[in-house]
Specification:
The chain is of the alpha/beta class. The protein is built from 10 helices and 20 strands. Among the domains are: about 90 residues, Pdz3 Domain; about 180 residues, Alpha-Beta Complex (2-enoyl-CoA Hydratase, Chain A, domain 1), CATH 3.90.226.10. Helix 6 runs parallel beside helix 7.
C-alpha cells in the first residue's frame, strides 16, 4: 500500500452542523475583557470576509469595556459581536458547548442523533445519523423543525436549538416538523447516547448486492480510523468488479479523511483547493498510484455535505466515477476552532473551498451525473431505488456498457 499524503487536519463537526476545523490554542487572555479582546483580534485577522459583513469592525473592540466584569459578561458580549457577522458557521462556544463539540470527535454524544442547520432562515434537518432515535422516528434530511418542546424555532440559532434538543439519556424531546408539501407532524423522541459509526457494509433488505461489487457506506468522515477502515475493505476485496461509496446523509468529518480516501482512487490530479481572506489559493493534490482502479459509483443526497462534497467533487471533476442521487447540501466553507481560556472556544470561517475544476459549491452543492429521487413511498417501503440505480451503473461500468466521459 502506497504512503498516503500527510495533510493538516481540518475537522467538520458531526453532531449538529458541519464545521471545517483547524484547532489552534489561544491561551494568552486571563481576564474577561482580555478574553473578549482576544476574540476580536482573532476575527479581525482571520475571518474570510475582510469587510466583516460590510461593517466597521473597529467599533466592537472597546464597545463593552465598561460593561464586562465576569466571564458571563464576556460570553454575552462576544456572542453579540459575532452575531454581527451574520455567519451561522462563525460562533462562540462557552466551556460547556466547547466540551460537547470536542466530545463528539471522540465518537459518542447524547441526543437524538441529527445534524441541523439554518437554511434560508429555517431550522432544518441536514441529516439523521444512522441507527439513532431520530432516524428510527422517521426524521429526514430537509425536514423543517417548526418548534422544540412547544417553543417556536423562528429566528433561533443553531446553538440555541442544539441546547434545547440535547438532554439526558432517557428523557424525551418533542419536535414539530414540516416536510415539503405535507402538513406539520409532531415527533416525540427519546434521547440516547449516540455512537457515531463511520463505515458500514450493511445493505438494505430490499436490495440484493452482487457479490462482485463492494459496497461501502460512509456515514461520516469524523473518525480518525475511517480512512484505514476504508482502505482495509478495498485491500480485502482485490477481485471486485466495482465499488459503490454511499455518502447519503453524510454531513462531513475529517478533511484529511476526504483527502486520503479520494487519493485511494485518483492517480494524481487536484482533490480540493482552499482560498483564504487574502485570496491565497492552496491546492491539495493526489499522489501518483492508486489503491484500486475498479469502476466507482458515489451516492449523494441533500444530506451529503462538506467532506462528502469534497470527495464527490474530486471524483466528479477528475472523471474517476459516476455520481448518483440528488443535489448535495452545499457547504463550501472552512472553519478554524480556536481554543480559548476557561475552556471556551471560537469557530471562525477562515477559508472557502473549491472543487478541482474551481467550482464554488457553497449554497449550491454537487449535481449528480444521474439524478434519482427517493420518494416518500420509497422511504416507507424501504425501496432504495437510488442504491439499485448505483448497482446498475456499477455493473454497466464493469462490463463497459457505461463509459465515463473524459
Amino acid at each position: 500500500m502506497r504512503k498516503l499524503m500527510k495533510k493538516s487536519i481540518i475537522f467538520l463537526s458531526i453532531f449538529l452542523f458541519m464545521f471545517g476545523w483547524v484547532i489552534r490554542s489561544n491561551v494568552h487572555a486571563s481576564t474577561p475583557i482580555e478574553l473578549y479582546d482576544n476574540v476580536w483580534r482573532l476575527i479581525n485577522s482571520k475571518y474570510v470576509d475582510q469587510t466583516n459583513n460590510e461593517q466597521d469592525w473597529r467599533k466592537w473592540r472597546h464597545k463593552y469595556d465598561n460593561v464586562i466584569k465576569t466571564d458571563e459578561d464576556a460570553y454575552v458580549a462576544i456572542e453579540t459581536m459575532v452575531a454581527s457577522l451574520n455567519d451561522p458557521y462563525t460562533k462562540f462556544l462557552d466551556p460547556k458547548e466547547f466540551n460537547e463539540e470536542t466530545t463528539s470527535i471522540k465518537g459518542s454524544l447524547k441526543g437524538i442523533g441529527i445534524q441541523i442547520g439554518v437554511q434560508d432562515g429555517k431550522l432544518t434537518v441536514i441529516a439523521p445519523i444512522e441507527d439513532t432515535p431520530a432516524e428510527k422516528a422517521g426524521l429526514m434530511a430537509g425536514d423543517e423543525i417548526l418548534s422544540i418542546d412547544g417553543k417556536s424555532t423562528k429566528g433561533i440559532t443553531v446553538d440555541k436549538a442544539a441546547e434545547q434538543i440535547r438532554g439526558e439519556e432517557g428523557t424525551s424531546v418533542t419536535l414539530v416538523v414540516k416536510r415539503k408539501d405535507q402538513e406539520p407532524k409532531s415527533y416525540t423522541i427519546t434521547r440516547a447516547e449516540i455512537e457515531i459509526k463511520s463505515i458500514s457494509q450493511k445493505v438494505p433488505e430490499s436490495v440484493k448486492m452482487p457479490k462482485d461489487i463492494v459496497y461501502i457506506r460512509l456515514s461520516s468522515f469524523i473518525s480518525r480510523n475511517a480512512s484505514k477502515e476504508f482502505s482495509d475493505i478495498l485491500a480485502k476485496n482485490p477481485d471486485t468488479k466495482a465499488v459503490i461509496v454511499d455518502l447519503r446523509s453524510n454531513p462531513g468529518g475529517l478533511l484529511s479523511n476526504a483527502i486520503y480516501i479520494s487519493d485511494m482512487f485518483l492517480n494524481g490530479g487536484a482533490i480540493v483547493s482552499t482560498v483564504d481572506r487574502d485570496g491565497y489559493k492552496e491546492t491539495q493534490k493526489a499522489s501518483r498510484g492508486v489503491l484500486t482502479t475498479k469502476p466507482l459509483v458515489v451516492l449523494i443526497d441533500k444530506g451529503s455535505a462538506s467532506a462528502s462534497e469534497i470527495f464527490s467533487g474530486a471524483i466528479k471533476d477528475n472523471k474517476r466515477g459516476v455520481i448518483v442521487g440528488t443535489q448535495s447540501f452545499g457547504k463550501g466553507l472552512v472553519q478554524e476552532i480556536n481554543k480559548l481560556p476557561n475552556s471556551s472556544g471560537i469557530n471562525i470561517t477562515i477559508q472557502k473551498y473549491l472543487t478541482p475544476n474551481g467550482t464554488d459549491i457553497h449554497k449550491k452543492g454537487i449535481t449528480p451525473d444521474i439524478v434519482v429521487e427517493l420518494s416518500e413511498d420509497d422511504v416507507k417501503t424501504k425501496n432504495d431505488v437510488q442504491l439499485k440505480k448505483a448497482i446498475e451503473v456499477a455493473q454497466q461500468l464493469s462490463n463497459g456498457t457505461y463509459v465515463v466521459q473524459k
